[in-house]
Amino acid sequence: MSLRILFPALIAIALTACATPQPEDAATSLREHALQDQAGYAFVRDLTTEVGPRMGGTEADARAVAWTKARFEQMGFDKVWTEPVTFPQWQRTHERAHVLGKFPQPLHITALGGSVGTDGELQGEVVMVDDYAALVATPSARVKDKIVFIKNRMRKHKEGAGYGEAVIARGKGALEAEAKGAKALLIRSIGTDSHRFAHTGMMSMSAGSPQIPAAALSNPDADQLERLIAKGKVNLSLDINVGWTGEYTSHNVIAEITGNKKPDEIIVIGGHLDSWDLGTGALDDGAGVAITAGAAYQFIKHRLRPGRTIRVVAFSNEEQGLVGAKAYAKAHANELDRHIVASESDFGAGPIWALKTRLNNADEAFIARATALLKPLGIEYLGNDATSGGPDIIPLAEKGVQLFQLKQDGTDYFDYHHTADDTLDKIDPVAFNQNIAAWTVMLHLFANEWQMDQ
Amino acid sequence: MSLRILFPALIAIALTACATPQPEDAATSLREHALQDQAGYAFVRDLTTEVGPRMGGTEADARAVAWTKARFEQMGFDKVWTEPVTFPQWQRTHERAHVLGKFPQPLHITALGGSVGTDGELQGEVVMVDDYAALVATPSARVKDKIVFIKNRMRKHKEGAGYGEAVIARGKGALEAEAKGAKALLIRSIGTDSHRFAHTGMMSMSAGSPQIPAAALSNPDADQLERLIAKGKVNLSLDINVGWTGEYTSHNVIAEITGNKKPDEIIVIGGHLDSWDLGTGALDDGAGVAITAGAAYQFIKHRLRPGRTIRVVAFSNEEQGLVGAKAYAKAHANELDRHIVASESDFGAGPIWALKTRLNNADEAFIARATALLKPLGIEYLGNDATSGGPDIIPLAEKGVQLFQLKQDGTDYFDYHHTADDTLDKIDPVAFNQNIAAWTVMLHLFANEWQMDQ
């Protein structure tokens, strides 16, 4: 019997008998139905279309908050509310780079988040270094009054392992270059594509806010700059108009389905609502909010009230320093012991291939049950040593909240990450719904089965 | 014996015996050696790096002419010269589009070649039509004072068959929209990618120069605009600063290897030197000039003087109306009867899969010989009914010059065509050298074997 036929029958039974179907049936049926449901996809489609780019602190940030609150209400969550998140406001007006001298031509760049501007045109000679470590090892005399260019390329990897290796150039490059007397920093984009899109992204502000401008070149432009440097001295003109402008209050948007057995025990899932300003934030991270909200919605749609409370958080301003996540952890400090598990979707919309957990008691029966339910989706269980539940879960994990992680195939994620090219067409609807089905399974297990009798 | 070993031996024999090797040996050896030679790739690499974008009429146009003349001389052609080409100058300063109203956001556009500017900001409501034919069929009342948006998408095709179907929107859309009283034209980019690059390209000026601004949206932005229109009335703001500015004189750059048997009989090959201003013109058409020059160079490198004269033409300003090609045909009108065959490479750098000819006498033995020499390169012969020898050959073909056509796989060509993303990394060096080998074979055949005894 097809599940499309089975499902209404199950609901009818549930409604007429006023009884929940057997957990085994419910989990499988939820999973199969979630594969077909369109509410999640509609969420990311409409968010990226109606709001579009929504960088923290822009006018679109406020529109995104209002949009998401309205959509959560429309979807029928029991409670929907917002919580304030305040942060310094950074804005981008324009950014231009040109090669001067014998081979004049434009280069495609984008300022790094948190950069200062050039205050008009800045000219300088380029000094190329292999990577961040090479910059650290470079004598100040070599880079003083120069434009430093960090050239290393991020490698592709299913789990994004190349990101951690490469992103230090973005995080710490400007501060290091500034300390050595450089007048600006350019990096090769932290991205794995070969298209003419520069990848933006935040600099680390933990050791101080750099006072020299910093920008990324697209990969083809970084190739071009390398070739030009091989031909002799290269001088560039930079005209970058960006900077810190004030303080802004945005909001986390939170939606809840109240549990009917252990309502005080909360499963926290979500994604981040903000995007960078260049694209429409489909993969990063409209998808994450939409996948998790779309999974929670399966319970509303099928009138299957969960035993525990399911809370979906659309975190504010992840990009500029997990600002919404920190505010959430602070605001909910006194109920974190009732956050029984947490996880975020923030790695695009590629198919999920593995589950990891970090549970104090990952009992065999529960893991066997999860494994069996996820296997038809092509997902394997990798163990109870999850190191991350997503960036916005870090502040919760630090307070001891247990985690699970649905690992997506991120091979292509860094082709689009933080670029103008992060748009809806990059989401494969089939992989997207496989995500929703997997999240639905995990919500069911944690809400209705995990340690329910203890 | 490897050809790398064989080849110097052959040259040694040729030089010591003052005799040309047997044609069979020479053709095969030339082909195999051409597969490895780096001069062609160095040409396109250096042109796109040192000159970069080189739109007709820009300062880079003059640099491209000087660069190409110097490189031809460096390669050792017998004669290198330039011939003037004069045309109206069109320039691009900036182009911006924003959605107004409830869903404000930027859209990525690029002005079409020959467009007028908006003279500041232009606002208007968008009226969407399915394609150019639908615009023709639309009553004026529907589009009067509106911004017309032609939405149809170009399809992918190995031979670029989708281009002809779609490009009429670019060629004639603005004039048609203007005639119906529209205030601007937007089209979906004539391109097959789904990246945030708008594809520029010339409007047809044959029926008059449109006086309303015209621009193309990237494919993801066209998708977005379609989705927005589905939600209700859409108003846009356009700010396009482009236009005609004067007259400019550029040059065709011509290089020749003088034949030693029939020096007055000329084989004309080449590509166009100009590119659009957005990318660095690697595929369109640095590759074409480099492939044909790289093939001719095989004769110089190996001191194998051809029987007929080989002439490589780097045509000026193909993009804005075959201007250099027309000037060439006019300047050489009195020697076209001595142009025994002509062909251009202007479809990127994908592998060649077929040969076509249009010869008055495509004798069986010659075709069999060509087929045998091209077969190891994966190239088949498709017949003597070639309809094109490349855009810049049209004025010659109209005067009766015979043609050959080495057909490239253009499946991906329109992913990059006329965008900022047309950069060197899009050239596959292996396919590029397969092109050089095929052109080398054809040059050898036409210079040394074809109708040599008649």
In the CATH hierarchy, the third-tier topology of the largest domain in chain A is known as Aminopeptidase
Largest sheet of chain A, if any?
11 strands, mixed
Into which percentage range does the β-strand content of chain A fall?
15-25%
Shape of chain A: elongated
Rg over CA atoms of chain A: 24 Å
Biggest interface, residues from each chain: A-B, 35 and 35 residues
Keywords:
homodimer, 11-stranded mixed sheet, carboxypeptidase (chains A, B), 2 domains, zymogen (chains A, B), Glucose Oxidase, domain 1, 3-stranded mixed sheet, disordered N terminus, 454 residues, golgi apparatus (chains A, B), lysosome (chains A, B)
3D architecture notes:
The structure is a homodimer of 454-residue chains. Chain A has 454 residues and is an alpha/beta fold. The first copy, chain A, has two domains: 3-78 and 258-449, Zn peptidases (Aminopeptidase, 3-Layer(aba) Sandwich), CATH 3.40.630.10; 90-245, Glucose Oxidase, domain 1 (3-Layer(bba) Sandwich). Chain A is 37% helix and 25% strand. Chain A contains 15 helices and 14 strands. Chain A has helices spanning 3-17, 23-34, 39-51, 59-75, 132-137, 140-143, 161-166, 168-179, 219-230, 282-301, 323-331, 364-374, 394-397, 413-416, 429-449, and strands at 79-99, 105-107, 109-111, 122-129, 147-150, 184-188, 214-217, 235-257, 262-272, 308-315, 339-344, 352-358, 380-383, 403-408. In chain A, the strands form two sheets. In chain A, strands 1, 2, 3, 4, 5, 6, 7, 8, 9, 10 and 11 form an eleven-stranded mixed β-sheet that branches. In chain A, strands 13-12-14 form a three-stranded mixed β-sheet, with helices on one face. In chain A, a hairpin with a 5-residue loop joins strand 1 and strand 2 (105-107). In chain A, helix 1 (3-17) packs across helix 2 (23-34), helix 3 packs across helix 10 and helix 10 (282-301) crosses helix 15 (429-449). The two termini of chain A are 36 Å apart. The interface between A and B is medium-sized, with 35 and 35 residues.
